[in-house]
Amino acid sequence: MKTIAVLTSGGDAPGMNAAIRAVVRTALDKGLKVMGIQRGYSGLINGELFEMQRHSVSDIIQRGGTILRTARCAEFLKEEGRKKAADVLRVFGVDGLVVIGGNGSFMGAQKLSKLGIATVGLPGTIDNDLSYTDYTIGFDTTLNTVLDAINKLRDTSTSHERVSIVEVMGRDCGDIALYSGIAGGAESVIIPEKGYDFDKLCKTILEGKLNGKMHNLIILAEGVGGAAELAKKVEEVTGIETRSTILGHIQRGGSPSAFDRMLASRMGVRAVEALIEGKTSRVVGIRDNKIVDDDIDDALAMPRKFNEELYNIANMLSK
Length: 319
Prior knowledge:
There is one protein chain. By secondary structure, the chain is an alpha/beta fold. The protein has helices at about 15-30, 40-45, 80-90, 105-115, 140-160, 175-185, 200-210, 225-240, 260-275, 295-300, 310-315, and strands at about 5-10, 35, 50, 95-100, 120-125, 165-170, 190, 215-220, 240-245, 280-285, 290-295. This is ATP-dependent 6-phosphofructokinase. Catalyzes the phosphorylation of D-fructose 6-phosphate to fructose 1,6-bisphosphate by ATP, the first committing step of glycolysis. Pathway: Carbohydrate degradation; glycolysis; D-glyceraldehyde 3-phosphate and glycerone phosphate from D-glucose: step 3/4.
């Protein structure tokens, strides 16, 4: 192993820059040459590679987004595109590739490994939807962003005695909604893993008003439905003014939390170590606060286990 490359792919997540920094500086410390790939798999196919030094990653650990940028790449979905990407890596003398991204990005790394490219993936996604790891890079920062928004919305919701429905990201995974709902003291948390009973939701809101509750906060995961439509239906049935807030891409930005910086740094170091050890087609994760690496095929096939305990806690504390 003489030269490795690193790219970020898919949606950006706070902590990606910290991961890039860890990969680059660990590799240089081990005497390896490091190439940065701009714009993900699209940049790889187009040969957008450049050599990185220690100063290339100076002053980035606190920055959100990704200095390598990210892009969609329809060409990479085709076999010809992947073969071209593998050829580009060989032309630049790259022996190993670190891919920072989510599920789709890992599938790309998986396919490149079958073309003879040593690959290691780092879980960079705010959704926390990868089963093999307890936490993904960016999830904790996103929770804090959502929590800050919830705190502010609670103030105005209380002043107007409103129902406030906050739609958060996460695709088909309800972790952002569930964790932020518990931490933010939400009255209801609606997630795709469980769905919801509309009549029961409205009954809870009305009972809360009768008991003197000044406001009602509902956290809605985007995988369940739209906040605006739900707000309209709730107001029609309960007669209580209801407002929806869609946090959107604000959840992807911002300076990463201390947890995400630490997680990204630990994972980045392990990714380089795995490549040096001759491992390929691996993904790095964290379980029970220990950094681990798993076979990418096993990791992608692992069924997701929903945290029933946290869901029960959310329901119990919302009463």
